[in-house]
Amino acid sequence: MECRVLLLILTSLVLRSSGEHHMKQQVERRQSSNKDTPIVVANWCADDVYPAMLTQSGGGPTEHGLRLQSGENQTIYVSDDWQGRVWARTNCSFDDSGQAQGGSGSACSTGDCGGALGCQIAGAPPATLAEFTLHGGMDQTYYDISLVDGYNLPLAIVMLANGNSELEQMQGSKTNPSCVGSVGDLAPQNFDPYKNGQQFLGTSSNNPMPFETKTTSDDVEQWCPWDLQVDAPTAPGNGIYPYPDGNVQRPVFDPCLSACAKYSEDQYCCTGKYDGPSQCSTNYYAKAAKSVCPDAYSYAYDDQDSTFIIPEGAGFQVIFCPGRAGVDSLPDLLQAAHCQSCDSES
């Protein structure tokens, strides 16, 4: 049964080889759609974060922004044809009315949405995004972690079977992407979350997450290109940066703009004459982002490497600062689709 599900996913990826991202699709609304799909937003960071939710289509949550203290989580409910995104804002300061202190300007250092606690517009870059198209056609759900708007916090998406027997048979190690690009939030190389029978990101010791073990703390600390750091360190000595800049201490919290967000150039944003999968290719930011977050969507036509596709019916958990990144789940999933037993079962 599992192999048939994986083959279905492989087929859907082939059908979507045009490169159009699922968030750009015009999703057909269902005639009757209740808000009963859970999205559990969890803060595993050491500090408070301010998650935000923006609806593109379908029935969105009643709340569009909230505060979560470290260790807290909150469940929001959306319709089963919802299309939207979730992200977290950092270092925020709101007044009692839910507006930026002083009534104008930004309230948060990253991910701000016009200074409001409840977001009616997209967050300002950089912001790590969890993107969902719950009713994407062919009875499938599409989702991804996106770094197209830059990176501010580690993030993981955990699929919740939500009572669906078909989804319950899918392995969490194949469906739950994660991205940790902050050295202060990276678990050690010998990280073992399965002690005493515990689960981690929807996986267990019987079906463990294939953790990235080659990437070092130095790799994570240095991945953001120097010119794209939001708060690049002050030049040492006589004001001249050494080349390469690897021996310059970077801040632990080091948000990173994408090349598109920083420069707004067609070649980076896949616009103008670069608008198309054959015209727009990866860039220096996207390559750097992929080096630490292979599960994440890094530029506008990164779909086949980064969009996760499952049968409809799932809920999701969005976790900020999950602790350790999984390694490139999607290629593993595609490879599993070629298992020999599938031929005999189909």
From TrEMBL:
<protein>
    <recommendedName>
        <fullName>Osmotin, thaumatin-like protein</fullName>
    </recommendedName>
</protein>
<feature type="signal peptide">
    <location>
        <begin position="1"/>
        <end position="19"/>
    </location>
</feature>
<feature type="disulfide bond">
    <location>
        <begin position="92"/>
        <end position="108"/>
    </location>
</feature>
<feature type="disulfide bond">
    <location>
        <begin position="113"/>
        <end position="119"/>
    </location>
</feature>
<dbReference type="InterPro" id="IPR037176">
    <property type="entry name" value="Osmotin/thaumatin-like_sf"/>
</dbReference>
<dbReference type="Pfam" id="PF00314">
    <property type="entry name" value="Thaumatin"/>
</dbReference>
<feature type="disulfide bond">
    <location>
        <begin position="224"/>
        <end position="256"/>
    </location>
</feature>
<feature type="disulfide bond">
    <location>
        <begin position="260"/>
        <end position="269"/>
    </location>
</feature>
<keyword id="KW-0732">Signal</keyword>
<dbReference type="InterPro" id="IPR001938">
    <property type="entry name" value="Thaumatin"/>
</dbReference>
<keyword id="KW-1015">Disulfide bond</keyword>
<feature type="disulfide bond">
    <location>
        <begin position="45"/>
        <end position="321"/>
    </location>
</feature>
<feature type="disulfide bond">
    <location>
        <begin position="270"/>
        <end position="280"/>
    </location>
</feature>
<feature type="disulfide bond">
    <location>
        <begin position="179"/>
        <end position="293"/>
    </location>
</feature>
